[in-house]
Every structure is written in structure tokens, then in C-alpha cells.
Write a structure and sequence with these properties.
It holds the Pfam family GrpE. By secondary structure, the protein is mostly helical. The protein contains two helices and no strands.
Length: 145
């Protein structure tokens, strides 16, 4: 069952004096005329859009290359900074330990003579522990030049 609204009947738009079957060929004829006129305009538009697309692709390629270059530079920068940070730390530790060597030698001589007692002994042991954590190791045997 379908409901129909009174007064509204579907009728094709047909000029007076023509049958509904005549409407379709005229529509086809007009679309053929539009297609014949359209290729010339579409061709110019297509050429323009193709050129514009090529420019955009070129710009995209340049931006992509720039971005890749910047990312590589940033990674190199981070590696260099980390390497420099490690080098600075090693130099600082080496400088600190080289300044402490004469003091540690004096502490060792005081220990040999039995002069290291009480609070000085615990300070000396703490200092030796700290410099050992920083990487200082005793090498050679006693009495070696």
C-alpha cells in the first residue's frame, strides 16, 4: 500500500506538445554538447592543476628533505652534547683526584707511622672510600718506584 498525496502526481518535465519519451533524448543531446565544450576548458584546468600539483609535490619533497636533515642534525647534536658531558665529567673527576693524590699520600704515610688515630682515622677512611667510588685505584706494590 502506498499513500499518495492528492494533487501531487509525478510527471516528467516535458515541454508542451512533446511526449515524455522525447524528454530523454534532448537531455542526452544537451549533455553531449556540454561534453564537447567541456574538454577544452577541462584540459586547460587539468594542465593548470597538474602543474600546481607538481609544484606542491616539489615543495613537499623539499620540506621532507629539510625535516630529515634537521632531525639528523638534532640527533648528532644530542650525541655530541652527551659525549661532551661525559668528557667534562671525566676531566673534572681526574682533576679532583689529581689534587687529592698528595693528601692521600700523606694519609698513607701517617698510617704507616701510626699517627693516624681517632677522628682523623675515620676521616681518612671516608676520604679513601669516596675517591675509590670516583675510580681511583691503588696500583703497584709497596716499595716499587
Amino acid at each position: 500500500m502506498t499513500e499518495e498525496t492528492p494533487g501531487f502526481e509525478e510527471k516528467p518535465d516535458v515541454p508542451s506538445g512533446a511526449t515524455p519519451d522525447d524528454a530523454e533524448p534532448k537531455a542526452a543531446d544537451s549533455s553531449e554538447e556540454e561534453e564537447a565544450a567541456a574538454p577544452a576548458g577541462d584540459l586547460d584546468q587539468t594542465v593548470g592543476l597538474t602543474a600546481q600539483l607538481d609544484q606542491v609535490r616539489t615543495a613537499l619533497g623539499e620540506r621532507t628533505a629539510d625535516l630529515q636533515r634537521l632531525q639528523a642534525e638534532y640527533q648528532n647534536y644530542r650525541r655530541r652534547v652527551e659525549r661532551d658531558r661525559v668528557a667534562v665529567k671525566e676531566i673534572a673527576v681526574a682533576n679532583l683526584l689529581s689534587e687529592f693524590l698528595p693528601v692521600l699520600d700523606d694519609v698513607g704515610r701517617a698510617r704507616e707511622h701510626g699517627e693516624l688515630v681517632g677522628g682523623f682515622k675515620s676521616v681518612a677512611e671516608s676520604m679513601e672510600t669516596v675517591v675509590a667510588k670516583l675510580g681511583l685505584q691503588q696500583f703497584g706494590k709497596e716499595g716499587e718506584p
